[in-house]
């Protein structure tokens, strides 16, 4: 019963947050800070409805103006969990098909996020080049899920797109790790679970080339997997 109530109120909240987010997007279309504001709208009501308790430790270096954030992707609830920690002037990269999701898709587009058609290699390259230019000249950071899809606990191999953008733009990579909440969430309980989020030290990319991408991606993946395992063990002890 509690699960059904939660799903009902989550549906209502999704619509309300989507409408408010659309208004923000219409009033200031493609502003790179729209993503953060809209993410907060979803997280503000979504986390209490889901019954999730979140503790975030985000520590972006003050001398870093722009960067590429990479995070592990677990479930659709990431929208609410990560909504609390999206930094200012940070947009994300998503599939072009997201644009057609009612309310959310239009909000996502107006929020200035980058939509990529993965089936069209030329357009995908153009979108990545525009993303690189935004990092270099528009004081805008990028948020990417380098796995490319949701995982089932163990991190999947990282795709090279996020690392190629960071190397081309000469900006650091900041890994953001989320504990494995998707496997343990219990939405039929009042307290459905705890989530830990931690950012790792920025990894510089200046001087790196395309030949360094595989090693860079694997370095980030190993660091993130170790951090996630440590957070999972911490939650298990508590």
From TrEMBL:
A matching Pfam family: Acyltransferase
TM stretches of this protein: 7-26
Reactions catalysed according to its record: a 1-acyl-sn-glycero-3-phosphate + an acyl-CoA = a 1,2-diacyl-sn-glycero-3-phosphate + CoA
GO CC entries: plasma membrane
Keywords of this entry: Acyltransferase, Lipid biosynthesis, Lipid metabolism, Membrane, Phospholipid biosynthesis, Phospholipid metabolism, Transferase, Transmembrane, Transmembrane helix
Record-listed E.C. numbers: 2.3.1.51
Pathway as given in its UniProt record: Lipid metabolism; Phospholipid metabolism; CDP-diacylglycerol biosynthesis; CDP-diacylglycerol from sn-glycerol 3-phosphate: step 2/3
Class of enzymatic activity (EC top level): transferase
Keyword Membrane tagged: yes
Domain Phospholipid/glycerol acyltransferase residue range list: 67-181
GO biological process: CDP-diacylglycerol biosynthetic process; phosphatidic acid biosynthetic process
Entries under InterPro entries matching the protein: AGP_acyltrans, Plipid/glycerol_acylTrfase
Entry note about domains: The HXXXXD motif is essential for acyltransferase activity and may constitute the binding site for the phosphate moiety of the glycerol-3-phosphate.
Protein family: Belongs to the 1-acyl-sn-glycerol-3-phosphate acyltransferase family.
Protein name listed in UniProt: 1-acyl-sn-glycerol-3-phosphate acyltransferase
Organism: Pseudomonas kuykendallii
């Amino acid at each position: 019963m509690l699960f059904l109530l939660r799903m009902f109120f989550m549906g209502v909240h999704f619509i309300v947050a989507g409408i408010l987010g659309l208004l923000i997007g219409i009033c200031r279309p493609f502003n790179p800070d729209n993503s953060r504001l809209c993410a907060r709208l979803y997280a503000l009501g979504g986390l209490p409805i889901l019954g999730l308790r979140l503790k975030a430790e985000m520590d972006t270096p003050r001398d870093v103006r722009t960067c590429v954030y990479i995070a592990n992707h677990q479930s659709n609830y990431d929208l609410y969990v990560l909504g609390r920690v999206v930094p200012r002037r940070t947009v994300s990269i998503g599939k072009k098909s997201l644009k057609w999701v009612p309310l959310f898709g239009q909000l996502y587009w107006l929020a200035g996020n980058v939509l990529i058609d993965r089936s069209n290699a030329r357009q995908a390259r153009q979108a990545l080049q525009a993303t690189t230019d935004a990092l270099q000249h528009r004081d805008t950071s990028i948020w990417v899920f380098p796995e490319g899809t949701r995982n089932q606990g163990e991190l999947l191999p990282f795709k090279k797109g996020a690392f190629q953008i960071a190397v081309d733009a000469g900006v650091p990579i900041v890994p953001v790790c989320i504990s494995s909440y998707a496997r343990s969430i219990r939405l039929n309980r009042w307290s459905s679970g705890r989530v830990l989020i931690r950012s790792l030290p920025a990894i510089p990319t200046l001087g790196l080339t395309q030949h360094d991408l595989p090693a860079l991606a694997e370095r980030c993946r190993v660091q993130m997997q170790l951090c996630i395992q440590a957070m999972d063990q911490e939650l298990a002890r508590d």
